[in-house]
Specification:
53% helix; Helix Hairpins; 11 helices; Beta-Lactamase; 4 domains; 5-stranded antiparallel beta sheet; alpha+beta; 5-stranded mixed beta sheet; single chain
Length: 384
């Protein structure tokens, strides 16, 4: 071989070595990129066989070590499918992607455990447009989705609170005007009666003015009480619900005795994790309402207990009084609403009760028909 030939072979070997080194570098670079990625990466060839995947992909899908060691694309795919909430839908999309081949695809997949992955798939195409396979990227978006759900829930709650505040302001301004108008009217009568020297009429005028002032005072106190709930609270404590019931009945014992109400407390009541003082307030309000609306019931009775609706524990105060028309069930929890306009009180009691229950994360509702008694139901956090 001539010197020129030897030099040519040496150059050829040098170029080949450089190419091999460059290829090795590229492989190392790509592998480093894969392993440092926050995404789970899966590389599949044109025949659908798995070429490689990174550790993040293994961890995200919880693929067992023995499946990884087997290097079986079918077992890896099955491991993925077993964790999907809708494997049939996923496979339908995968088949479509491989039929189209050069299409970039992106969607969301949900796992049985509730996690959500953003799935992105892109084709590997050569310079000539030849299809070599696909790269799949999976990004865990569970935290983001949960944050979005929390944000949306907070927005809905804020909108609800704003609507509630508008109703609250309207109701307060409307109901406070009533005693003011009464006072204003009787001040005019008072001036006239004083001018006439009618002492009896003056006494009546003053009595009506005093009554209107007392009504306004009750309205303002109840409004203040409602506004304080949630801002001024006692630390929650685990307490048997029976103790709360007995404390409330103790506070209402005089009214119960005067009306001759028979009270029954269900057995095996659970313990609750609550602001004890506030829940006693709930029970006293509900028991007082039951007594107030017994109507002409000759044998008045009240039952306090807890029932199981599916998996939900529902507390209740049940009476055999006059009942409430279904059309009024939601209205009774409105501020200053009164079933009987002539009854005592401002009508804020059930609005306060509703607010306390909601502050504890529960809801409250009425089950009743006219003439068939009333059951007020509510949820509370049950101690575990």
């Amino acid at each position: 071989m001539t010197n020129a030939g030897i030099v040519g072979v040496m150059l050829d070997l040098t170029e080949r070595k450089r190419a091999e080194e460059a290829l090795a570098f590229n492989n190392i670079f790509l592998r480093t990129q894969q392993e440092s990625s926050l995404d789970g990466i899966l590389v599949v060839d044109e025949n659908g066989e798995i070429l490689s995947f990174n550790q993040r992909f293994v961890d995200m899908w919880g693929i067992p070590p023995e499946v990884i060691e087997s290097k079986s694309d079918e077992r890896v795919l099955q491991s993925v499918m077993d964790r999907l909430a809708s494997p049939e839908e996923f496979m339908r999309k995968v088949k479509h992607i491989y039929e189209v081949r050069d299409e970039i695809s992106r969607d969301e997949v949900v796992l049985k455990d509730g996690r959500s992955f953003d799935r992105y798939s892109a084709p590997m195409l050569g310079a000539s447009g030849r299809y070599y396979g696909r790269v799949w990227y999976f990004r865990d978006i569970t935290d983001r989705k949960q944050a979005e759900e929390v944000r949306e829930r907070l927005v809905r709650e804020l909108e609800s609170k704003n609507t509630e505040m508008e109703r609250f302001i309207y109701t307060v301004s409307h109901d406070l005007r009533s005693p003011l108008l009464t006072i204003n009217g009787f001040v005019g009568f008072l001036e006239s009666d004083l001018a006439k020297g009618s002492s009896e009429r003056v006494k009546v005028d003053l009595k009506m003015i005093s009554s209107a002032i007392s009504k306004m005072d009750r309205l303002l106190k109840d409004t203040l009480e409602l506004s304080r709930i949630g801002r001024v609270a006692n630390p929650p404590e685990v307490v048997p619900f029976t103790e709360i019931v007995q404390e409330a009945l103790g506070q209402m014992s005089e009214k119960i005795g005067v009306r001759g109400v028979r009270v029954k407390i269900k057995t095996n009541l659970p313990s609750v994790n609550v602001d004890r003082m506030r829940i006693v307030e709930v029970l006293t309000n509900l028991i007082e309402n039951s007594i107030k609306y017994m109507g002409g019931q000759p044998h008045p009775s009240i039952e306090v207990g807890c029932r199981l609706d599916g998996e939900e524990k529902v507390f209740f105060v049940k009476d055999n009084g006059m009942g409430i028309d279904p059309s009024q069930h939601d209205k009774v929890f409105g501020l200053f609403y009164k079933v009987d306009k002539k009854s005592e009180g401002s009508g804020a009691g059930l609005a306060i009760v509703k607010r306390i229950i909601e502050i504890h994360g529960g809801r409250i509702w009425v089950e009743s028909e006219l003439g068939k008694g009333c059951t007020v139901c509510f949820n509370l956090p049950v101690a575990k």
